[in-house]
Amino acid sequence: MVKEGVPISVYDFSAMTILGELKSLGEYEGNVLLIVNTASECGFTPQLDGLQKLYDQYKDQGFKVLGFPCNQFHSQDPGTDAEISNFCQRHYGVTFPMFSKIDVKGENAHPLFVHLTNQATGMVTKQIKWNFTKFLVGKDGEVIGRFAPQTKPESITSEIENALSK
After folding, report:
1. Domain count, the chain
2. Domain of 150: which CATH number?
């Protein structure tokens, strides 16, 4: 639902998929989402495996992982969308939805990430400071948690299960 043209939940945003198709996040309405800014050449890149395992474990219960590649942190995702997609599938078996590479901070930040960081600020700043920052979104489209890059995906299963039970 949009009030006076201003998005009020993640479902009000759209983003380009990694395959070049514009997708409304409204298509995920009613699901629990874990939205993550990813990178292919980061020390946290192995978290793609944990994200895929979460997706596999909970997808039939209404859970989706949404990956958004970003090259803003030490140029750790320099490839094209096709290269990123191939890398994620080949090395980590990623089947969860991936989106086109975006900025997650600064003046060119994707509006979704502006919204996410306004809804759930970090420890020191609301701005995303590194790859693999994770936002847990409830079925209602509201942000219910933000997790640091160091937080391993498997360590937030209880939060995911709690959100799925609501």
Report:
1. 1
2. 3.40.30.10
The answer to pTM > 0.85 is: yes
Q: What are phi and psi of 44, to 5 degrees?
A: -90, 0
CA separation for the pair 143, 93 (Å, rounded): 27
Catalytic residue IDs:
42
What type of residue is 59?
K
The range of the structural domain enclosing residue 89 comes to 2-165
Radius of gyration for the chain, computed over Cα atoms and rounded to the nearest angstrom:
15
Q: How many CA atoms lie within 13 A of 164 on its CB side?
A: 18
pLDDT tens by residue, 37-75: 999 999 999 999 999 999 999 999 999 999 999 999 999
